[in-house]
Amino acid sequence: MAKMIWQTPRMTPVALPTLNPFGRRRTGVDVQSEIDGVPIETLAERYGSPLYVTSEQRLRANIRRIRQAFTAHCPNVIHGWSYKTNYNGAVCSILHQEGSWAEVVSRFEYEKARALGVPAEQIIFNGPNKPRAILERAIAEGALIHVDHGDELELIESIAAERRERVPLALRLNFKTGYSEPWSRFGFNLESGAARAAISRVKASRHLRIDGLHCHIGTFILDPRAYAAAVTTLCLLAREIESDGRRLRYIDIGGGLPSGNALQGIYLPPEQSTPDLEEYAEAICKAFLEGTAYRVEHGEARPALVFESGRAVIDDAQSLITSVVGRKETADGRPAAILDAGLNALFTALWYDHPVRLASPARGEPRDTVLYGPLCMN
User: Fold this and answer.
1) Are 230 and 308 in contact (CB under 8 A)?
2) CA distances from 107 to 79, 111, 113, 146 (A)
3) In the chain, which segments carry CATH 3.20.20.10?
4) Predicted local confidence at residue 20, as pLDDT
5) Which residues, 6 or more positions from 15, have their beta carbon under 8 angstroms from its beta carbon?
């Protein structure tokens, strides 16, 4: 009996329908064919791909919702738009039309805000690196200067001395809230005594005047109690500062609200893992009203409450249009698509599970597909 020739075994992958988390067959994929009434295919043909598109309708709706959530509890709230989140001129202009001030952290952003017509007195100047030239301009024009560290405080005092005037400023602080990981890289630390030392220095200066307190407790804060604790801390310190009769103009609690995006590593969807915006506004305003009640008891107006908005306003208002430039199969048989946009265009894909939608209905059976960008590492 002749021996059969040995052949290398070969495995052929069998593609199964894509299943949902409950093990059932998916009925389809998400399709989004237009943005604010403009077809996506038209946008790609006219402006090319990849392309970022901002929905003005969603942008305005988001900032209005935030403003209304705060106004329902506290009428005197100033909203600052975080330029570092998105300094596109059209985006900034729309938010200024909606009443937002400008929150900037650099010379570039300050000059951009002024070029867009924002009055200097409606610019909140944060950041640890403010060169002398832009500080001199911001002081002369009346911007709200937030001091980050001792060297900056010394520089501002020297500028004020040269101008022979008393310059108003706010001190940026960091401290523990008990509900979120403390950010210690920005501002004067409260627990170490650095914050009170800075306050004492400003009080003793003939050329400086403390007008406000500022903090920024982090980003994508998922517990409203962290904000309430921060507000309470700032209000207690404000009352301590005002014990000698001086009065602060405002308390700025920074930003850090989460958006509706899904963070990687969190099993629950955003609508279950992220508190409603109204919960944040209620927690912040309740703590602020309680913490500043002493002003009302003495027949005085409360200081203004400042809130800086960023990703919660812009994240779901923007879309990245990208095109499939090639198709292939991975070594394990999965379908893959090569896109013309990579992490250089969407670096937030490193920590968000961004939803992916088709511009037109898919043909055939939907399958989980690996998406590759055009770069080496994505």
Assistant:
1) no
2) 21, 6, 10, 14
3) 53-316
4) 54
5) 333, 335, 365, 367
DSSP-based three-state secondary structure for 174: strand
Cis peptide before 50 (omega within 30 of 0): yes
Residue ranges of alpha helices (H) inside 49-120 are 56-71, 89-97, 107-115
Q: Tell me the angle at which helices 132-141 and 150-163 cross, rounded to the nearest 10 degrees.
A: 60
Contacts 24+ apart (CB under 8 A), 264-268: 264/351, 264/352, 264/353
Amino acid at 315: D
- 110, 104 Cβ separation under 8 angstroms: yes
| 323, 50 contact by CB (below 8 A) | yes
Cβ contacts of 108 within 8 Å, gap of 6 or more:
87
> Model-level pTM?
0.89
The pLDDT assigned to 26 comes to 54
Encode pLDDT of 168-225 as tens digits: 999 999 999 998 888 888 999 999 999 999 999 999 999 999 999 999 999 999 999 9
**Confidence band for 15, pLDDT divided at 50, 70 and 90:** low
Q: For the chain, where do the domains classified as CATH 2.40.37.10 start and end? A: 13-50+326-378
Going by C-alpha positions, the residue among 162, 217, 221, 218 that lies closest to residue 190 is: 217
Cβ–Cβ under 8 Å, residues 335 and 367: yes
Two structure tokens written together for 309: 């908005």
Helix (H) / strand (E) element for 118: namely none
d(CA 184, CA 175): 7
What pLDDT does residue 271 have? 82
Write the CATH number of the domain with boundaries 53-316: 3.20.20.10
In this structure, what token pair is assigned to residue 209?
């005047």
Question: Residue 376's pLDDT is what?
Answer: 84
Q: Right CATH number for 13-50+326-378 from 3.20.20.60, 3.30.70.3270, 2.40.37.20, 2.40.37.10?
A: 2.40.37.10
The predicted pLDDT at position 12 comes to 61
